Amino acid sequence: MTISSYSRAFALVSLSLGSSSLLAQENKEVLQDMSDPLAVYTQGGMGITDQGLNFKLGMAYDTGDPDTMAMNILELKGFAGDLLHLDGNDSFDSLRYRHFSLDTTTGRGSQLDVNWDFASDLGSASYSFIQALPPMGDLQLYPLVGAGLTVTDTAEIRGSDNPVGSVGYAIPSTYMVVGTYAKYSINDDVWLNYNPMYINTLNSNHYMADLMDGWYHEVAASYQLNPRQNVRLFGNYSDSAATSSSVEWRLEFNHQF
């Protein structure tokens, strides 16, 4: 091989290594911090609870504004419970849809959160704002405030003597929610979350007040397997009058695409 051939080969290798390095940097820049409650990225997840299997799919999309990010997330919960000898049945018992957007210049997010429980034919929809506060050492808080309404498709009208019967969908209550997401980083791969939320109904429906009013707590311990994958263990409990005080556990695996 001549000197010029060596030069051309060296140039090609340098160009190839440089391109690979740039590509790796671009891929690294695309990946989001999966421990950040305000992170926006395309993702998939699967979990298991005492009721069955949960599935999650999140799709980030281009908002057309370089200062904003947004995604849609759909979760289906409680599948194959009877097949796996758990407490649930083999059909999905609930679903959750969220639309989340983030202003990267202010650290403020907004979220539309829609839930439906197939067993009780009761759902809810809320809209809330979330603000990232400056870190305090290894602790960071993300306060939340919002308002929502509940929906049922088993509403009935009762007359003075006889019930009129079902009237289909109705809105039995409205409510407000305040709380915070909290993250404590132990190291680069392990972090803890505590997310207390307080719900209070805004109308005089005593049944819905007993069903919903109170504190809702979520704790989680998470481990980042690699930049794209983590495993998380959640515990949820509440002190509302109509719910059990026992902790509901779920184990979840998440992948960032």
Automatic annotation (TrEMBL):
<protein>
    <recommendedName>
        <fullName>Lipoprotein</fullName>
    </recommendedName>
</protein>
<keyword id="KW-0732">Signal</keyword>
<feature type="signal peptide">
    <location>
        <begin position="1"/>
        <end position="24"/>
    </location>
</feature>
